[in-house]
Amino acid sequence: MESNNNPTTASTDEAFPASSNVSLLNCIDLSSPDIQESVSLLKQACLESGFFYVVNHGISPDFMDEVFSQSKNFFDLPINEKMKLLRNEKNRGYTPTLDEYLDPVNQVNGDYKEGYYIGIEVPEDDQEAEKPFYGPNIWPATDLLPGWRQTMEKYHQEALEVAKKVARIIALALNLDADFFDKSEIAAKPIATLRLLHYEGRVSNPSEGIYGAGAHTDFGFITLLATDEVVGLQICKDRHANPRKWEYVTPLKGAFIVNLGDMLERWSNCIFRSTLHRVLGSGQERYSIAFFVEPSHECVVECLPSCKSETNPPKFPPVKCVTYLSQRYKDTHADLSLYQNH
């Protein structure tokens, strides 16, 4: 992809519904030798919107296309085959449509999307597998989806490398050493979760509580999102506004849309923003691939020294990463006992 360090807008208005607001997002070029410019652009994005693009990240366009193709192959399977791979208590495997309920105040049903969770592979006999979010993945049979596991494992590894590069720029933007988040074991023992997503062709209707994905903030550190070219993602820069103003994010082929999670907002004492976002269905099928990156289980997230002062004391108590994440997943996903008849 051609590098572009300027705020990026949609190349055409025809992709968006009439009278839509479209967000301007900064673009971070990971191949740029000018690290200070990257830090400046990222810092501005983190202060203003909590969302930005990352381009020239090192994952080839052909391989990105292959991942999307393999994702579609899975979601094209009959529902009975997908239900055999239903997610477990480690949040690995298939999540059916309506399984996730991100905005119960405004949603009449769960999200009109289905998904598939893939984490870091930890053998069942490994002591680490006893921890939440660690353990073996659930994989489709090889004869059902040839090459599927190899594709997803390779993508997981490559996306994690991109996330580490972004984390180093974030550290510099917070006046920390570049390797600060590496020391939080984001490099060594992260909770890194790949989630394939498929939005069915249902038209969302916010006035009736119907959404592709309800309004929410992400739970963890950062999220790398790859999308197809179908419009759907919206962000709200001021979650306390009444009424809220929603802006579409332009799909940018080959780029990651990166957003900050609640854990980084806590770390930064709300200086950097975890921004409310949602997905509205337009009547077209939509595919996206989210990569959620968190520190290790034992990492204690507490206000960074560079983000507090006498006039701006810490707003949150320290919390262990695993404690925080476990509660957030429990709050937003259906109880697995609901699927016992399948």
From TrEMBL:
Q: Which PANTHER family match?
A: 2-OXOGLUTARATE (2OG) AND FE(II)-DEPENDENT OXYGENASE SUPERFAMILY PROTEIN (PTHR10209:SF867), OXIDOREDUCTASE, 2OG-FE II OXYGENASE FAMILY PROTEIN (PTHR10209)
Protein name (database record): Fe2OG dioxygenase domain-containing protein
Pfam families recorded: 2OG-FeII_Oxy, DIOX_N
Q: Where is the Fe2OG dioxygenase domain?
A: 190-295
* Organism of provenance: Protea cynaroides
Keywords from UniProt, A to Z, are: Iron, Metal-binding, Oxidoreductase
Q: Which GO terms describe its molecular function?
A: dioxygenase activity; metal ion binding
What the record says about family reads: Belongs to the iron/ascorbate-dependent oxidoreductase family.
PROSITE patterns recorded: FE2OG_OXY (PS51471)
